[in-house]
Amino acid sequence: MRLFVGDDWAEDHHDVEVMDSSGRRLAKARLPEGVAGMARLHTILGGLAGDEADEVEVLVGIETDRGPWVRALVAAGYTVLAVNPLQAARFRDRLGVSGAKSDPGDAHVLADMVRTHAHELRPIAGDTAQGEAVKVVTRTHKTLIWERTRHTQRLRHALRDYFPAALVAFTDLDAADTLQLLAKAPTPAQAARLTTAQISAALTRARRKNIADKAAAIQAALRAEHLGQPEVVTAAYAASVQALIAVLTVLNTQINAMQGQVEAYFGQHPAVEIITSQPGLGQVLGARVLAEFGDDPHRYTTAKARKNYAGTSPITRASGKKKVALARFIHNDRLIDALMTQAFSALRHSPGARAYYDRQRARGCEHNAALRQLANRLVGILHGCLKTGTLYDETTAWSHHIESLAA
């Protein structure tokens, strides 16, 4: 006997519907988030299973793969299928074209989807607690970096509007020395009065090189003539910039702190040596790759499956005599970002990777397309190393391509 559960979750409740194999609705309810809701779900399913509870398989469809609720479902022995919201939306259109939508309706869609397409849906990964911990700290670290980039762009736009000399003087707006000098002199008039000693002191604290030359260049740029704004407008911009500087200073501190946490958690993972042996992967980037792939050894049955999840492998569209290969645009943004960064770094550290990239360029591929193909190849190499438990070897990794090129 099988029971199919659709779980449409919200922040404080879950709408669930239970179906049997024929598609008949057996139960529906709105459950509160937390222990009380989970206990009630167990009661509903236990009542439907009756005396044959041990022989009943429960399949749950839900549009998330993490959180205490999902963990509790797995711990209860249910098969939890993480459904992509885009998949659920497409399936909803199959059941009705009116466009109507509700939480109980979504629970019905999920239950029916699990009932008819369970064989095509992926059970949530059985990652270890250590792997989950690495994911938590790496995602927080990367999110803070993205936030720093956003605030740096806001700072750049503000300076461009009232203080263009600062953009000439400082090339790295989120650097510690730049933030210190802008905080001390947020207006063009104040910046023009900065001495070389003050500028040199900030550069020294930031451990810059060629301090004397850089201090002179910064001072000259700040004292050069530029277009500006009225005094009252400049003062308003200066107040805004000081707020952005305060946020960026805190972000820099927390990013450095979280990097230490990433390295600490990743350093304790059993796969750290295999992952960091890959070209282009260090402690931080390797941690991101591990976090987004997960560490369930049974999640990816083949290298192709891992490449498809990574989004590095192309998709084929064929119709009649027309056949084209396109890049995947639906993917894990954090993972593809890490893999493309790895591929670019591998160009400097791996002769095989460099030769592979150059061959793609010689075939007419643009830089990004060639880099994506290299990333795809590196994912396959990583999969083989993790599957066999061996470290990366330059000769073994690229021997097939070297032999085919020689032939």
From TrEMBL:
Source organism, top-level taxon: Bacteria
InterPro entries, alphabetized: Transp_IS110-like_N (IPR002525), Transpos_IS110 (IPR047650), Transposase_20 (IPR003346)
Transposase IS110-like N-terminal domain: residues covered: 5-164
Coiled-coil regions listed in the entry: none
UniProt domain Transposase IS116/IS110/IS902 C-terminal: residue ranges: 273-357
NCBIfam families: transpos_IS110
Record-linked PANTHER family: PUTATIVE TRANSPOSASE FOR IS117-RELATED, TRANSPOSASE FOR INSERTION SEQUENCE ELEMENT IS1111A
Protein name per the record: Transposase
